[in-house]
Design goal:
alpha/beta; Rossmann fold; eight-stranded mixed beta sheet; 12 helices; 8 strands; methyltransferase; SAM-dependent_MTases_sf; Methyltransf_11
């Protein structure tokens, strides 16, 4: 009989295997996805970090390689990592002809295969909502950072209202079974503080999902698409208003979620 910890570990492994399956099958969609590849947060990332040519940078859960591509021109080395081998291979095939300073490493964000205090900067963008243990991810990011190193987190977040948070997470889970949970800003700030990461800059953002392309990216059947649609259409007036749900002739056109971008510095002690 499994004890509680054993059951939790099994569930975590199942989530990670689902992540590998979903992202392995959809690797090129994430490389070419407009919302992933062309977000103005990539330029802002460079502006905030002020990367130096001597730096060694870690890109956690690179996905389509967009953070790696944005930072590689400015630094000595980027370690581009992902849990999904097919995703990383697709990214490497795309970037190999552009840069010679990228190393690709298959890595779990919650158990990074690097020594402590090795990186000048660590970045993770639009991925932590897939991590079953976000506290382990933050601890690992802090561990591998050099003292005074910079950490940037960019991810979808939930509203503080529990009802709205539940609606958002259920929406994501219905569309993508590899979704774990979006956290709120308050939750992220607690994890950052507890790992010795001092917030220096942050930005609240709104992100619009064009529904047809968003729902098609990870759904596996028309039945799944229909479940997502019916869930969104079931939103009460307050929820539909918060997420700016746009419906025309019974078809969902778009909706808007919250995204948070934060930069922290690792404390020396």
């Amino acid at each position: 009989m499994n004890d509680g910890k054993g059951a939790d570990n099994l569930m975590e492994e199942q989530i990670k295997e689902k992540v590998k399956d979903v992202f392995g099958r959809n690797a090129d969609k994430y490389r070419t996805s407009e919302i992933h590849a062309q977000g103005d947060d990539l330029a802002l990332l460079v502006e905030w970090l002020e990367p130096q040519e001597t730096w060694t940078v870690l890109d956690i859960a690179t996905g389509g390689g967009h953070v790696t591509k944005a930072l590689a021109p400015y630094v000595q080395t980027v370690f581009s990592t992902d849990l999904t081998a097919q995703m990383l291979e697709n990214t490497a095939n795309h970037l190999d002809s552009l840069f010679e300073n990228i190393s690709y490493v298959i890595a779990d964000a919650e158990a990074l295969p690097f020594l402590s205090h090795r990186f000048d900067a660590v970045v993770c963008r639009i991925a932590p909502h897939h991590f079953p243990n976000p506290e382990k991810f933050i601890q690992e990011a802090a561990r591998v950072l050099k003292p005074n190193g910079k950490f940037v987190l960019i991810d979808n977040i939930t509203p503080e209202d529990p009802k709205l948070a539940e609606f958002m997470n259920q929406t994501e889970k219905l569309r993508d079974d590899s979704h774990a949970r979006c956290l709120s800003k308050a939750e992220w700030r607690g994890l950052l503080r507890s790992s010795g990461l001092a917030e220096s800059k942050s930005l609240d953002r709104k992100k619009t999902f064009q529904y047809p392309t968003w729902v098609a990216r990870t759904t596996e059947s028309e039945e799944q698409v229909e479940r997502v649609k019916q869930h969104l259409l079931s939103a009460d007036e307050e929820t539909a208003s918060y997420f700016s749900l746009k419906v025309q002739n019974g078809d969902i056109q778009s909706f808007v979620i919250d995204e948070w971008m934060v930069m922290c510095t690792k404390k020396e002690n």
